[in-house]
Structure formats: structure tokens, C-alpha cells
Design brief:
This protein has 9 helices and 2 strands; from the N terminus they run H-H-E-E-H-H-H-H-H-H-H. The chain is mainly alpha-helical. The protein is elongated and about 80 Å long.
Length: about 230
């Protein structure tokens, strides 16, 4: 099947119109605020799951030396993220159909699900490694950064990079860079929750959730203004 150009039609104008149409289709395919809203909800729901699922073992004088094991993370986050990515894919497809376009969200959902399962493997491997260590040793700084990157909040950012690429969305790319910077360089809030306490992770988790929630609001308002 071939398409013949209309005699006298400017090829440059045809190319410009084609690019404009492609840009409009990509813009109509974007439902970025849905993804960020769902991930924000999961992030907030993870706080009580992590807090009450944490194993705390204290020893020493007045129980001043405590060892925390965040078992609640591995029990909540992977299934929660799998459900979240399934919900995001569903709403992307549904909203895109109402706009008369397709949805390029499945590679993003598959990536997010794979990263969630990969976290479980890494967590189990880390626990086995800790159990065979004779004495605890201080971890290099780069391992702490890597730990935050492969943690659920970090994998959310990695998957969002894939979504930004699929949508050709520079706004989402810029937001994801800011989000990952917040995850990898967390707030110093030891004075607020107590160094090493059960709730020491809460301010960072709340901050990450607020960033996702604000991002969802910004993208939703931007979409409404473009209508």
C-alpha cells in the first residue's frame, strides 16, 4: 500500500504536519499523573507495614545497642508494587482508549515488576551474606548508595526512567532525576526521630511520598490546562 503526495503539496509542510500529529499522539498517550499517584499511595501505605514489620533486637546496658531488621519491607513492597504496576497499566490503557490512541505502558509495567522481584532476590542474598559474617563490618559509602538504588523507592525511579523514554516525556525525565536525587541523598533527620530508632526511616519515606504526590498534581494540572 502506497501513499501518493497531492500535487503541489509542500513536502516540508507535510513533514511538519506529520511531526505535529506524532507529538499530539504521544501527548495524548501520557497519563503520567496516574502512575505517580498510585506510587505515592503505595509509598505512604508502606510506612505502617515497615514500622510494625520491623524486627528490633536490643542488648547492652539499658538496651542502648539495637539491631533493626526491616523484614516488613520485603513482605509489603514486592506484592504491593506488582499490584501497583498492574493498576497503572490498566488505567493507562483505559484512559488511552477513551482518547482514541494506544498506550505504550506495558514495557514500563514489566520493568517495574521485574525490579520488584529482583529486590527480593537481592534482599535474600544480603541476609544470607550477613548471617555468615563473623563480625559486623562498616560498609563503604558506595554500598549504601547502591542499597538505596535497589531498594523499592529506588526501583520506582529506575522504572520511571523507562516510562519517560517510552512517552518521550522530558518533564517526567526531569522529575525522575529529582526524585532519584532525593532517594539517593536522603534528608538528615536523626535529630527528629532518633538515630537508629524504629521510626528513623519515616521522615524520608514521607518525603519520598510527598515528592511523588506533588509530581502527580503538577502533571495532572498541566494536562488539564492543555485541553
Amino acid at each position: 500500500m502506497t501513499t501518493e503526495a497531492v500535487p503541489g503539496e509542500d513536502p516540508r509542510r507535510l513533514l511538519s504536519d506529520t511531526r505535529a500529529l506524532a507529538h499530539r499522539v504521544r501527548r495524548d498517550q501520557r497519563v503520567t499523573w496516574v502512575a505517580l499517584l498510585v506510587l505515592a499511595v503505595v509509598t505512604f501505605l508502606a510506612i505502617p507495614a515497615d514500622y510494625f514489620g520491623m524486627d528490633v533486637q536490643c542488648q547492652g546496658v539499658n538496651d542502648t545497642e539495637c539491631r533493626l531488621s526491616r523484614d516488613g519491607v520485603v513482605w509489603f513492597w514486592p506484592p504491593a508494587l506488582l499490584l501497583a504496576y498492574a493498576a497503572i497499566a490498566y488505567w493507562y490503557v483505559r484512559i488511552a482508549r477513551t482518547r482514541g490512541v494506544g498506550a505504550r505502558v506495558l514495557p514500563y509495567a514489566y520493568t517495574g515488576a521485574a525490579l520488584a522481584l529482583l529486590y527480593v532476590v537481592i534482599w535474600v542474598g544480603f541476609r544470607l551474606w550477613v548471617d555468615i559474617q563473623a563480625q559486623p563490618t562498616p560498609q563503604p559509602e558506595w554500598t549504601l548508595v547502591l542499597d538505596r538504588l535497589v531498594a523499592p523507592t529506588g526501583t520506582i525511579g529506575i522504572a520511571l526512567l523507562v516510562l519517560a523514554w517510552l512517552e518521550r516525556n522530558p518533564g517526567l525525565l526531569a522529575f525522575t532525576v529529582v526524585y532519584l536525587a532525593a532517594v539517593l541523598a536522603p534528608l538528615r533527620v536523626d535529630w527528629l526521630m532518633g538515630s537508629g530508632g524504629r521510626g528513623a526511616f519515616v521522615p524520608e519515606q514521607v518525603f519520598n511520598g510527598v515528592v511523588l504526590l506533588l509530581g502527580a498534581a503538577v502533571f495532572a494540572l498541566t494536562r488539564r490546562r492543555r485541553r
